[in-house]
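Re: beginner question about structure tokens

> Can someone show what the tokenized structure looks like for a real chain? I only ever see the sequence side.

Sure, here's an example I had lying around. Input first:
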Amino acid sequence: MLDAQFIEHNKQVLIHEQERLHEDIQLLKQTLKNEVDVDIEEGDPEIIEREKSATLLEALEAKMAAIEHALKIIAADQYGICERCGAEIPKERLEVKPEATLCVKCQGEVERMLRRGMNPQRTRWHFPVE
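And the corresponding structure tokens:
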């Protein structure tokens, strides 16, 4: 069982990361908005940079969603419990990845399912939060 001090520390880490990501996302969105749309047929090298920026934005937004989800888990007093199988998530995993809401085993299974194009069906999980 995780102690309250550890949970509060990770909550503050997540909030700080959320604020940083929010700034980065806003800056990147502004950058993409200010770029001039180009015609793909023109072969403009800026297209590659624009695609990189769009991909980075997508990754940052996914990270933001994971952090927001973890903060919901904390608010529901379920932090440190795998939301898929209900097992305790090791403290060491949460130290490295405070937004983790799945144990390593379940995370691996979910990633394999996603790679195969399958839906992990969150509704059947121990603690489905949307």
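Each token stands for a local structural state, so reading them left to right follows the chain. The chain has four helices and no strands.
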